[in-house]
From TrEMBL, chain A:
GO terms for cellular component: cytoplasm; ubiquitin ligase complex. SMART domains: ANK, BTB. The keyword Glycoprotein does not apply. This is BTB domain-containing protein. Keywords: ANK repeat, Repeat. Residues 579-600 are annotated as: Disordered. ANK repeats lie at residues 74-99. Residues 155-215, 353-411 form the BTB domain. It comes from the Eukaryota. The keyword Iron does not apply. PANTHER family: ANKYRIN REPEAT AND BTB/POZ DOMAIN-CONTAINING PROTEIN 1 (PTHR46231), ANKYRIN REPEAT AND BTB_POZ DOMAIN-CONTAINING PROTEIN 1 (PTHR46231:SF1). Pfam families: Ank_2 (PF12796), BTB (PF00651).
UniProtKB/TrEMBL annotation, chain B:
The keyword Ubl conjugation applies. GO terms for cellular component: cullin-RING ubiquitin ligase complex. GO terms for biological process: ubiquitin-dependent protein catabolic process. This is Cullin family profile domain-containing protein. Gene3D superfamilies: Cullin Repeats (1.20.1310.10), Cullin, Chain C, Domain 2 (3.30.230.130), Winged helix-like DNA-binding domain superfamily/Winged helix DNA-binding domain (1.10.10.10). Residues 1-20, 372-397 are annotated as: Disordered. Residues 383-395 have a biased composition (Basic and acidic residues). Belongs to the cullin family. Pfam families: Cullin, Cullin_AB, Cullin_Nedd8. Keywords: Isopeptide bond, Ubl conjugation. It comes from Aspergillus mulundensis. GO terms for molecular function: ubiquitin protein ligase binding. The keyword Ubl conjugation applies.
Length: 642, 829
């Protein structure tokens, strides 16, 4: 209803017309189908995960490179499934990974139409194409901005084109155009070119802008005053395109009428540009990295004239092997360990990466550095070697991201990436690290299992205490929430440990530092998710009548009622487990099997305090009470009001 | 369990201390503070950004950001209090402290100026250094600022940059001089800057960029650490004094200018000052003050002096208007517009001048009319013929031409002011209405304006447009219409115009019917349909009459009247309500006059036409207006020598009747005035005039009169003059002062006035009834105002007259009084 004020949902007939037109265009080959049919197994698994809300699998599949905008035989896209089934986190992940939800398209409208609740619908609207962009857009915007950026100076070649001089970057030219690559290979030390007068400067400018992934020009800046007619400019562009072996250049200028077509072309072009940059990055930057003893780093001298046009070298030091366990000193300390003086017998290794400042500028850290009057910004005979405080692997991940926008890394380095990205101010990478941790790290946290997690039952991949402290330190809200959720679903395993109490204490003190409020953020979050943990079942069971009955009662009663139902469900699951049947035996579309009454009475059911409960229903009710009480006890012990 | 987890996922640990201990903090801080000091001394080129950043980063990670903040602040404070303060104070020479007020001697000024520039450049340098340093320090500590932003905010702390700026303010600018406690560096800065500005205002060159730089510094500093816009040091501590000094300066300047220069120079100087101050705000002081300085200029220099300047004797607006000094006027106008959207002084001056000039025109034209009047009345009796005749003609023309001159003069004046308005006053609305009001006021101040204007049209339509192109005619008429716009009593104009028009139509004096029609349509556009209705009806009557005449001729031919001697008849049938009343009226002094007796020949034709006409339109009544007609007669003169001379005479209808009397008389027989009167019953007035034109006018003496004198007495005898001489075959005998349109004399005007009042009374009553019928009930004041607004298009009704009409309507039971307080009327259906 509230949407009505801003944008009304399109009428069904309008939708059908646009669908028809779209199909026609796709058949004619004018535009590419945004949502191609995909019958592969990985895609099916992704869809399945979206139905169930399995973040981990979703993240894995996305990393594998499954097309998240494809559709299944029933015309469902992963995003539609996730929003239909009400998995907010999954929908968010998909959108962040580039799933399309564009108004005025059939699939987009359908997605909005199907959203389970307003929260998800608003999320979808937020990501409407007009606001969100191609995930590669930041990269394209950055390279395009290199053409106009004046400070700091990063260009290494000047081209005289008519009245103006273009300040360009050899590595971009080499990466994007085979012609330039060849030409620069033969004479890498060139610092200036002059454009032949036969080529209109406008045409050259357009081509360069294209190489730098800029938006295609609205008009060709021809006509009176420029000395060239439009057709001359166009012919020039044509000629240059052939010359530079950039065949899509002309297309990008020609058809810019249709919004969707233009977008697709641009998306394709940026993706191509990215691939070219990546290829060049891997072949040159990564190929030329140097592994060397840390003590000998200062011996490395690179001239400004080098075949890969690097203008700065980044250094990352290897960790000594035994440092891995340095942290075991105590669980009371910070998750980040002390510097272990490396054994004298082992010489420390360092890795050096020759890089381009133009790309490093994407990090605010480097941007400030190169703009400052400090040493790093000054021109010296040889390239500066700048140490970066992280491991070589992580530095490589960071560089890969800066050059290519790719951020695929494993869970085990993600915390380090998080810290490094935080230090270097690369927000997007930080978010990505947080996403990796919160999705892959969720372990086998399908709600059903998480609920019955007891001590030692599940293998944990991560140290949640370290994670939450990292979250605090790097200020990632999402990670804090993740940790709280994590705790909530496994509270039994942690609630009694002193480490947990300490954590609560820490959270409280964090808040007290900020303001004199009487809430403890972590605890509030845990309570919220604890509630969700029990409530969820109730919703999924879909027994509306129960809800209505309890609607009149007090909140506590309602919670109790929720739990009752939940127990029925989990009872069923336990039976299933006992009979070695797969957990999802009867789960098809919904993550939870529908409630089946009357089967939960056969097993002995114990609550957390070891009492025997009548059934699962009362067991969970008691468990909930116990957990809540324990939280209160912790507070009392810590002398905190909450 | 947790141990196993840690193997799986680890956090970076390099460069981080084990427990955030003091040692690590001190270690990092030591490196950092050392480097910061090197930054202060401009020795930073060898420092590594990465290393400093890492120091700061580490300190933040071990949760010691607060301490880092405080220590950095402390470091800055020490630096500023020590080295920087010393440098600035050293830069102040004693001369800056001494002459704080006015500089009397020139040498002293030069000396002070040099000292001031020295001081300002020291300050500028110190400020620049401080900014650069803080920029660098902020860069190095950027992790702290970004990461700890929220916390810093919540602890009511500001960024280190702002804090350092505040430190600069307190420890450098507000440092007091060692010699005297009361004077701080900021005071010296202020007095020096003001001194510099003063120098520049009095025409000296100063180092603008330097002053500007120091002012910029004040703009960049704030009273509080939270840096609200309104607490800029510039605004709080510099601007008030600056504005005060400026106000004083310009007050004095205004006074000086008033005493020494004329209006035009004044404007020019003010203009220069405005441009100069604007420039000063951009290049020497601050744009923040631009509007305030402008206000001061407006106030001190313009608003306070403008009235005086406008009314400057000999050079003020009056003279500019007289001499068409468009440039100066436009300057005056622009200045007025700056300070007063209504431009009161200017409009008053312009209005006054217009009314003055208008009154001059009025007076001139009346003077002309006056000079002619006595000569007319004092015209001696007959005797000396030709001279007197001429004199008699002259006054008539003079009065008319004075009317035309009046109109021309006003038009010229109007053109002049239109030009000024367009070129100097920027086509300003306020002035336009002022000009319009002024014109309207002096035009309406003379009661004869309507008549004069109508005469102007009459003259032009009769003669003036001869040989002129269509465009010229058009613009001529347009000019007249422009004046019509100013005339409030449009009904009076209509009456005159109607009268003049009827003469033109009936006597066929109009030059071009096209022009007449054009005129009507122009008036229609200007004043409205209602106004021209009757005029158009007059034209219609003329056209219908032409048809009538020809169809009557056909009728006569068909009748086959054998009488060959029958008179030819051209007839104009006029609708009595549409034509001027005095032409139509058969009454004189309330008594119905008997129609005059026409000779038999004429009478037959009359009857024949009446029969014809009433056949066509039964139920109408025809009244014959002999006074308006003309006749062509063939007269035969038997000379004493036996010759017979024939002339065709064009005479008025009355003259024809008179002449026909002589047909039956022998040459030596005479008729007395009384005889003629008895036999024709022509009204005395007309008879006298016709006899005068037949017997007295020198060229057209068809009759002889005895005794031969100008005046006609009842006993005078008239003979047919067989010796009538004329070189033309056709002779036109005009009626003395009867036919031509000219300025009315007193009596006539009174008569017109009276008629007008009657007519107005009708209009007022009609309006009252119309309004009341619609409203049913209305208070007295509302009714009056509605009536006034309804009638304003035609004339400005006299309130007393409206009151009388209301009374009269109540008497006649159209209205009734329904309440006394407030007085209210009701409509009686």
């Amino acid at each position: 209803m509230e949407e009505k004020e801003e944008r009304t949902v399109i009428r069904k007939d309008q939708l059908e017309i646009s669908l028809h037109n779209e199909k026609k265009l796709i058949q004619e080959g004018t535009i590419i189908d945004d949502n191609p049919l995909d019958l592969s197994e990985p895609f099916r698994e992704l869809c399945e995960a979206c139905r169930k809300g399995d973040l981990k699998v979703c993240q894995e599949k996305i990393t594998e490179g499954v097309n998240i905008n494809a559709r299944d035989p029933y015309d469902y896209t992963p995003l539609i499934l996730a929003s239909l089934c009400g998995h907010y986190e999954v929908a968010q992940l998909l959108l962040e990974s580039g799933a399309l939800c564009e108004r005025d398209t059939f699939q987009g409208e359908r997605c909005l139409y199907n959203a389970l609740n307003d929260r998800i619908r608003n999320l979808l609207l937020e990501y409407d194409y007009s606001k969100s962009t191609d995930p590669l857009q930041p990269l394209a915007a950055h390279t395009a901005s290199l053409l106009v950026r004046e400070q700091p100076k990063t260009s290494d070649i000047e081209v005289d084109a008519g009245d103006e001089t273009l300040y360009l970057h050899k590595f971009v030219l080499a990466a994007r155009s085979p012609y330039f690559r060849q030409k620069l290979k033969t004479s890498p030390e060139t610092t200036a070119w002059k454009l032949p007068s036969t080529i209109p400067p406008q045409a050259f400018g357009t081509a360069i802008k294209y190489l730098y992934l800029g938006e295609p020009p609205r008009d060709l800046r021809s006509g009176p005053g420029t000395g060239f007619t439009e057709s001359e400019v166009f012919a020039g562009i044509n000629k240059i395109a052939k010359y530079l072996e950039t065949d899509t250049l002309v297309d990008s200028i020609l058809d810019s009428g249709d919004r969707r077509l233009a977008r697709q072309r641009r998306t394709t072009e940026i993706a191509r540009g990215r691939d070219q940059l990546e290829e060049w990055f891997r072949d040159n930057v990564l190929q030329n990295k140097i592994e060397i003893d840390t003590t000998k780093v200062s011996d490395i001298k690179w001239d400004h004239n080098n075949p890969i046009f690097a203008d700065v070298i980044l250094q990352a030091d290897e960790l000594p092997e035994d440092d891995l366990y340095g942290e075991e000193v105590g669980s009371t300390g910070l998750p980040i360990g002390p510097i272990e003086s490396s054994g004298a017998n082992k010489s420390q290794k360092s890795v050096l990466f020759p890089c381009h400042r133009a790309m490093l500028l994407r990090s605010e850290f480097f941007q400030t550095m190169f703009n400052s009057p400090f040493r790093e910004a000054q021109m010296k005979d040889h390239l500066h070697i700048i140490p970066v405080d992280c491991s070589p692997d992580v530095l490589e991940i960071i560089l890969t991201f800066l050059y290519t926008e790719r951020a695929d890394f494993a869970l085990d380095v993600s915390v380090e990436v998080l810290f490094a990205a935080d230090m270097l101010f690369i927000e997007k990478l930080k978010t990505k690290a947080a996403v990796v941790i919160s999705t892959l790290g969720s372990g086998s946290m399908s709600q059903a299992e998480a609920a019955k997690t007891t001590q030692g039952s599940a293998e944990e991949d991560i140290d949640i205490y370290a994670i939450i402290r990292a979250a605090w330190m790097t200020r990632v809200q999402r990670l804090e929430e993740f940790a709280a959720r994590y705790f909530a679903y496994r509270l039994e395993a942690h609630i009694d440990s002193p480490e947990f109490a300490e954590l609560i204490q820490e959270s409280a003190s964090r808040i007290q530092k900020r303001q004199e409020t009487d809430s403890i953020e972590l605890l509030d979050d845990i309570r919220f998710y604890l509630n969700e943990r029990f409530r969820l079942r109730f919703d999924d069971a879909g027994i509306e009548e129960m809800m209505e009955e309890s609607a009149q009662q007090q909140l506590i009663d309602q919670v109790a009622a929720d739990e009752d139902i939940e127990k029925v469900t989990s009872g069923v699951e336990e039976i299933d487990l006992a009979s070695k049947a797969p957990t999802q035996a009867n789960g098809d579309r919904l993550p939870e099997p529908p409630a089946v009454n009357g089967q939960g009475h056969h097993t002995v059911i114990r609550t957390l305090d070891g009492e025997i409960a009548d059934d699962e229903l009362s067991r969970d009710a008691i468990n909930y009470q116990i957990l809540m009480e324990k939280l209160d006890q912790i507070l009392e012990r810590l002398n905190l009001d909450a | 369990m947790s141990m196993r987890a840690r193997q799986k996922i680890r956090a970076p640990r390099r460069g981080l201390p084990a427990n955030g201990g003091t040692n690590d903090f001190e270690l990092n801080w030591k490196t950092l503070s050392g480097s910061l000091s090197r930054i202060h001394t401009k020795d930073a080129s060898e420092l590594s950004f990465e290393q400093l950043y890492r120091n700061g980063y580490t300190i933040v990670l071990i949760q010691r950001a607060d301490e880092l903040y405080d220590r950095t602040k402390q470091l800055e404070k020490e630096w500023l209090c020590g080295e920087v303060q010393r440098r600035v104070i050293a830069g102040i020479s004693p001369s800056l402290l001494l002459a704080k007020e006015v500089v009397d001697v020139q040498d002293q000024a030069t000396e002070r100026r040099e000292a001031g520039e020295r001081f300002l450049s020291v300050l500028k340098e110190v400020w620049d250094d401080h900014q650069t340093c803080m920029k660098m320090i902020t860069d190095v500590l950027m992790y702290m600022f970004i990461v700890e932003k929220d916390r810093i905010m919540s602890q009511k702390k500001v960024s280190i940059y702002s804090a350092a700026m505040a430190l600069f303010r307190d420890n450098v600018l507000r440092a007091s001089m060692p010699s005297s406690d009361n004077i701080s560096v900021a005071d010296v800065l202020k007095s020096t800057t003001l001194f510099m500005i003063q120098l520049e205002r009095s025409g000296h060159m100063i180092d603008r960029t330097l002053v500007h730089h120091c002012v910029k510094m004040l703009e960049g500093l704030y009273e509080t650490e939270t840096e609200e816009e309104s607490t800029k040091l510039y605004l709080t501590s510099f601007e008030p004094d600056y504005l005060e000094a400026s106000a004083a300066f310009y007050r004095a300047e205004g006074k000086r200018l008033l005493e020494t220069v004329d209006a035009a120079t004044f404007c020019a100087v003010v203009y220069d000052r405005i441009a100069e101050e604007k420039e000063r705000c951009s290049y020497t002081v601050s744009n923040l003050s631009e509007s305030k300085i402008k206000e001061i200029l407006d106030n001190e220099l313009i608003r306070n002096n403008l009235a005086e300047v406008i009314n400057f004797e000999g050079t003020g607006v009056r003279v500019m208007l007289d001499q068409d000094r468009i440039n100066n006027l436009s300057k005056i106008f622009a200045l007025s517009a700056r300070v007063d959207p209504k431009k009161n002084h200017l409009t008053a001056a312009v209005s006054k001048r217009i009314v003055e000039m208008g009154n001059e025109i009025n007076a001139a034209s009346f003077a002309l009319a006056q000079t002619s009047a006595p000569s007319k009345s004092s015209a001696p009796d007959a005797g000396q013929k030709k001279d007197k005749e001429k004199e008699k003609e002259k006054p008539v023309n003079q009065v008319t031409s004075s009317a035309i001159k009046w109109v021309d003069d006003i038009l010229a004046l109007k053109n002049k002011f239109d030009d000024i308005w367009k070129n100097a006053f920027d086509s300003d609305q306020v002035l336009q209405s002022a000009i319009t009001t002024s014109f309207s006021s002096f035009i309406n101040s003379t009661p004869r304006s309507s008549e004069f204007l109508s005469l102007f049209f009459d003259e032009n339509l009769k003669k003036g447009i001869k040989g002129k192109t269509e465009n010229e005619v058009d613009s001529l008429l347009e000019n007249g219409i422009t004046l019509l716009r100013y005339i409030k009593d449009k009904d009076r104009f209509e009456a005159y115009y109607k009268k003049h028009l009827s003469r033109r139509l009936l006597m066929k004096r109009s030059m071009s019917m096209d022009a007449e029609r054009q005129m009507i349509s122009k008036m229609k556009m200007e004043v409205g349909n209602q106004f021209t209705q009757r005029l158009e009806a007059m034209f219609r009557d003329m056209t219908i009459s032409e048809d009538l005449t020809s169809s009557y001729k056909n009728y006569v031919r068909e009748q086959g009247d054998p009488d060959q001697k029958r008179l030819e008849l051209d007839i104009n049938v006029l609708t009595s309500t549409m034509w001027p009343m005095e032409i139509m009226s058969n009454t004189k002094d309330g008594q119905i006059e008997l129609p005059c007796i026409a000779p038999k020949e004429v009478e037959t034709v009359k009857q024949s036409f009446e029969k014809f006409y009433l056949n066509k339109h039964s139920g109408r009544k025809l009244a014959w207006q002999h006074s308006m007609g003309t006749a062509d007669i063939k007269a035969t003169f038997h000379r004493s020598n036996g010759k017979v001379q024939r002339h065709e005479l064009n005479v008025s209808t009355y003259a024809m009747i008179i002449l026909l009397l002589f047909n039956n008389l022998s040459a030596d027989e005479s008729l007395t005035f009384e005889d003629i009167q008895a036999r024709t019953r022509i009204p005395d007035n007309d008879l006298i005039r016709n006899l005068q034109s037949l017997a007295v006018a020198p060229k057209t003496r068809v009759l002889k009169k005895e005794p031969m004198s100008r005046d006609v007495k009842p006993t005078d005898k008239f003979y047919f003059n067989n010796d009538f001489q004329s070189q033309f075959l056709k002779v036109r005998i005009g009626v003395v002062s009867g036919g031509a349109n000219k300025v009315e004399n007193q009596d006539q005007r009174k008569e017109t006035e009276e008629k007008m009042n009657n007519e107005r009374g009708g209009s007022i009553e009609a309006a009252i009834v119309r309004i009341m019928k619609q409203r049913k009930k209305l208070t007295h004041t509302n009714l009056i105002s509605e009536v006034l607004s309804q009638l304003s298009a035609r004339f400005v009704p006299d309130v007393n007259m409206v009151k009388r009409r209301i009374e009269s309507l109540i008497d006649r039971e159209y209205l009734e009084r329904v309440a006394e307080e407030p007085p209210t009327y009701g409509y009686v259906a």
